[in-house]
Amino acid sequence: MLSKNSLVQAARYMRPVLQQRATSTLHSKASTAVMPDLQSELPECDYQPPQYTGPSYEKVLQIRQKHITPNIVPHFTKPLLIHNGHMQWLFDNEGRRYLDMFGGIVTVSVGHCHPKVNRALQQQINTLWHTTNIYMHPKIHEYAERLTAKLPGDLKSVCFVNSGSEANDLAMLIARIHTGNQDIITFRNAYHGMSPYTMGLTALSTWRFSLPGINNGIQHVMNPDPYLGLWGGAACRDSPIQTDRRCDCTPETGCVAGLRYYDQLEEVFKYSLPRGHVAAMFAESIQGVGGTVQYPKGYIKKAAELVRANGGLFIADEVQTGFGRTGEHFWGFEGHDFVPDIVTMAKGIGNGFPLAAVVTTPKIAAALGQALHFNTFGGNPMASAVGISVLDVIEEENLQNNSLEVGTYFLKGLAELRERFEIIGDVRGKGLMIGVEFVSDHITRTPLSAPHVVEIWETCKDMGVLFGRGGLNGNVLRIKPPMCITKTDAKFAVDTLANAITEFFNKNQ
User: Fold this and answer.
1) pTM above 0.85, yes or no
2) Is the pLDDT of residue 386 over 50?
3) In the chain, which end has fewer C-beta atoms inside a 10 angstrom radius, N or C?
């Protein structure tokens, strides 16, 4: 917890607050709402949501408490009851409008209820819902060709599943069968799923149950984090915004932090793994649940070479970073200048529809022919139709470039807040994959306590912006909106965060 003296000291770093508004509305064409004193005007939206006609808020809470398992924990002290979405906007049961800066946990890629995606789904629903793959149907074949055309090299064989956990589960199976090896490497702070199989890959204690065998054959190695790790500095990340740590990198040495983290990875191979008999290494291109952590430049490419030299495959987890979200590239791994052996993808692939995939080479995919393997809903006609339309929208609306332009603008605006507020320790990311880390001490990078982070986070919600949270300590704002957002939306989100931090200090000093 921050002491009163610490709050006062941090408040000295704040510049004058943004314009205050005595009254405001949460949206331009719906009901008014009680607002905090500090609030910027929501960007205009011509869409009018339908009136909510479902069970009352109180009835929903009763049903939830009685019938929904307790692991399904809603965000916010007073959970939102969302009933309608339109592009970057969400609407609650009372008609209030919110700017969605989390995209259903990095899942809504092209916009809530995008009209083209809706039409594709409706047309397919009226044609064919489901057969499973015991019969051929055209959509899975059309989609497989379209999707694999977006991947480099020989990544041309795809198996469709329904979620990121399923995709990573299958990738583990393929790697172990193909190589004949057991051991898989993943990073501390990584998140790759919650199935009993993939829970072993996930290396965040908050997401792990005490179960026997989940770590069977899995090694968690040092996380190469330039902000919180042992090494890192102001030139290590592939991001418009760098850490404020001193950097030892030079043109001659390359990224010194990356080399030191790589040395630690080599140590694991030397002492903890059977030499020459590794199955795979997993890595998110940018860590998502772990708090938008980026790796030092060049590290992933060297790690892939080491894994392959020891008989293994490198698996790129693109569940959150794929489909143009990082801006410069369609796939996050392209920013690391290498081609993986297996790519897993989900979330944004279907804009919210249950859809995921594992893509690999025909040679590696042949391992699945050693026994029967089947997924009842994988490549379902509806899912395939949605997947095709999502690719269409990304291309037609130039959303990858929008992620780059708006994301860079967004990051620079957030970096200005870091200069204004000592409470912001780091701003990082690429495109529209952004993290803002709160700290109680800018020098030691001590995480801001959860109650303080939640206070700021909830105030942003009250002002009309929905952010996510991540990191082991829950002190990182996760900003991964639908890729259709505008610079006006980004500015509103930055202004809202500034206002929420200002209000936090005004209340606590």
Assistant:
1) yes
2) yes
3) N
